[in-house]
Amino acid sequence: MSRQINQPSNQIKLTNVSLVRLKKGKKRFEIACYKNKVLEWRSGIETDLDNVLQIPNVFLNVSKGQTAPKEDLEKAFGKGKPTDDIILEILKKGEMQVGEKERAAQLERVHNEVVGIVASKLVDPRTKRVYTFGMIEKALDMLSSQAHSNTDKSASASGTGTPVAGEDGEAKPKAKEHIWTGVVTTKSGKSQALEAMKALIEHQPIPLARARMRLRITCSTSVLKQAVKSGGGGGGKGASKEADGEQKAPGTVKDRILGYIEQVESQDVIGSEWEVTGFVEPGAYKPLSDFIANETKGQGRAEVLDMAVTHED
Hints:
alpha+beta; Arc Repressor Mutant, subunit A; Ribosome_mat_SBDS_N_sf; 3 domains; large ribosomal subunit rRNA binding; 13 strands; 3-stranded antiparallel beta sheet; Alpha-Beta Plaits; Ribosome maturation protein SDO1; SDO1/SBDS_C; 4-stranded antiparallel beta sheet
């Protein structure tokens, strides 16, 4: 069978093949597919297997034309399982192998997606203006170069570090450091953009901050002057001042809500409802929403007007 595959008239042109591999039962099985068709089939765009498979066979090695023996297939997939079902399993669960050009193109797509998301979410904290795509790209390159440089240094000086001692004399674990080493194709662009933002904000290769959210908060006037029931749930600016002993935490629902808002844009009383529009740090949105839900018992709500407020030239 393998001799026939290697004949010139039947030989697979590897420049036009996309391999899907699945390791099962200590063996690696491969199927030969047309380029771009595997993803179309997995997403449901393509439904005809004839348009996906170059050869309706299971191989141990496609490039050598080495088909998988029946015994190997039965041992790995079960006795009597039709070849079509085995091919479908490999197609569904297998890992797609791509060439260098495809891998580079995929990496570039993810890179552009990550930089684009980051550029839309971070701003210069002084002017609130967004940075250009190129400036964010350079900032990430700086972090990546620094991370690789530090990795090399730590590898040569491993074991020489001394743990920081706490007040009680015991070794204190070091806070987790957000490190950026560059994009990969195995994670989603959104998750990598979040990692990139954390690293940029922590290391500040250029002045950066998360763009603030713009919210509208409405609340029944009947609960505004109520004392806050729970000791926690504040987390706003007033609450942090209490910890420093500078100022007591705001005691009413209204004051505590305003404690979360960095900048009030407008506030008014319309009928029996108080409405305030303002800007908050993205990290404050969830605790603010939870506070409103817990303290107003359904008589208040927070609505996002803008996920990331930025100023552009």
